[in-house]
Amino acid sequence: MSECGCDSVCNTAPPDPGYRLALWIALVLNALMFGVEIVASLQAQSVSLLADAVDFLGDAGNYGVALFVLGLAPVWRSRTALWKGWLMVGFGVFVLGMSAWQWSAGIVPEPFIMGWVSLLALAVNVGVAALLYAHRQGDAQARSVWLCSRNDALGNIAVMGAAAGVWATAHGWPDIAVALVLAGLALTSGASVIRHAKQELRTNGL
């Protein structure tokens, strides 16, 4: 098998120290923001903020996995990216379910908590995305990490918009609408990572 021979180990490029450091910073920041957002989402009763909190947790795990596979054979990086793609799809399905529950419960979230916390989250995610920008054109593993960071920043802007919509209308539908957008973003990005990873695996004869 190709992953057992020298081609899968000897030709593996050494990990980029700058990329490793960026991943460690991203891991710590995402773990911290998960804690902040999970508390804030419960206080605000916001499904879009909860979705963003769960996404922070998933991304912290993704960055941890990315650190683990640095320096491994390309086939293992592709397999990890495939798993992460399915995780992103699973996150999208979870958000869809939470949105349906929020709609049936008729809950109106607290917009000010949503707005301030999403602004903090945006600052964190823009910083992380900037750190990882130079590595976005790598293999499926690096691409999945970049997509997660980009999606997070876009998601934070959307949550801020939801907070403004809830404040202006005194209804919960803007919160649910943004949650649906986040779900769609996770589904499409996950599908993109899955396709990219499968293509790499086919190239390696797997």
TrEMBL record:
GO MF annotation list: monoatomic cation transmembrane transporter activity
Descriptive protein name: Cation transporter
Membrane protein topology class: Multi-pass membrane protein
Organism classification: Bacteria, Pseudomonadati, Pseudomonadota, Betaproteobacteria, Nitrosomonadales
Pfam families assigned: Cation_efflux (PF01545)
Domain of life: Bacteria
Cation efflux protein transmembrane domain residues: 23-72, 82-201
Keyword ATP-binding set for record: no
Membrane-crossing segments per the record: 21-40, 60-76, 83-101, 113-133, 153-170, 176-194
Keyword terms of this UniProt record: Membrane, Transmembrane, Transmembrane helix
